[in-house]
Design brief:
By secondary structure, this protein is an alpha/beta fold. The protein contains 9 helices and 9 strands. Helix 1 packs across helix 2.
Length: 264
């Protein structure tokens, strides 16, 4: 019997886009128009065009415990929207998702950090946001600092950190959390090559131990191919392929090539 830890059924996310008549309008213009011609202004609002934009549409998939699944696709394909729904950052417009286990997500560099707090303080803050008890954070504190390579700047406010230092610290906290499921969105795109290799080694260790289920969004196809036996391809908010990574990447490249030929 399959041990499913993620089950998504008809997941969709709709946003309402408003196209303003007359182009860009400043706040000062709006206030002036409201005061001078209130009736005409409110009537003009009705002329604005509303458009429904489906950032994600009817996503259906399931993930077993210990699986490492890559999610690929072009910009605006719906990859990040999917992870935000799974992370419960944003609710779906339709559909439902069932997740079993403790979740850690790293979707943006520095998410959960306070710029005025030091690296030391943010380890405890970020760990608490991810659901780590204080005793667990204390136990793993030295390992987190060593992995992030920020010992020298541990008591410096993180607003003075570079983007690479941010991602090192954020990844270190998430990687040392005893989570069952880990959502990663382009976290290896920031940082130097040496640290990227360190992160990859840590992810490979997780894979060997089979102690974490990972959904990994990335544009780095070689990394996806080396880490993820299975991948999902997204395009225009829809899942168009789900299967062995090599086949899914081939499908993606074929689509990119055909679209390039169409545009020329």
């Amino acid at each position: 019997m399959k041990n499913l830890v993620i089950e998504a059924e008809n997941l969709s996310k709709k946003y309402n886009i408003i196209h303003l008549e007359g182009g860009f309008i400043t706040l000062r213009d709006k206030i002036g128009a409201t005061l001078s011609h209130p009736i005409a202004f409110f009537k003009s609002l009705k002329n604005n065009k509303h458009e429904n934009f489906w950032a994600l549409k009817d996503a259906n998939f399931a993930v077993e415990a210990g699986e490492i699944v890559g999610i690929i696709g072009g910009n605006g394909a719906g990859k990040s929207t999917l992870l935000k729904i799974l992370s419960r950052i944003t609710p779906p417009s339709t559909g439902k998702v069932r997740i079993v286990g403790r979740v850690a997500s790293m979707l943006e560099v520095g998410t959960g950090f306070h710029p005025e707090l030091t690296g030391r303080e943010n380890i405890f803050l970020n760990g608490a946001i991810l659901g780590m008890p204080k005793t667990e954070i204390i136990k793993k504190f030295d390992a987190i600092v060593a992995f992030a390579e920020i010992t020298k700047f541990l008591d410096t406010p993180v607003k003075r950190y570079s983007s690479g230092m941010y991602v090192r610290l954020a990844f270190a906290v998430a990687a040392h959390m005893d989570a069952d499921i880990l959502f990663l969105d382009e976290v290896l795109a920031v940082g130097d090559a040496e640290f990227q290799q360190k992160c990859l080694a840590k992810m490979e260790e997780m894979i060997r131990n089979k102690n974490k289920t990972i959904l990994f969004v990335s544009h780095n196809l070689p990394t996806i191919k080396s880490l993820c036996p299975r991948s999902i391809l997204m395009e225009n908010g829809r899942m168009i392929a789900d299967g062995p990574t090599a086949l899914v990447i081939d499908k993606y490249l074929e689509n990119q090539l055909s679209q390039g030929q169409t545009n020329t």
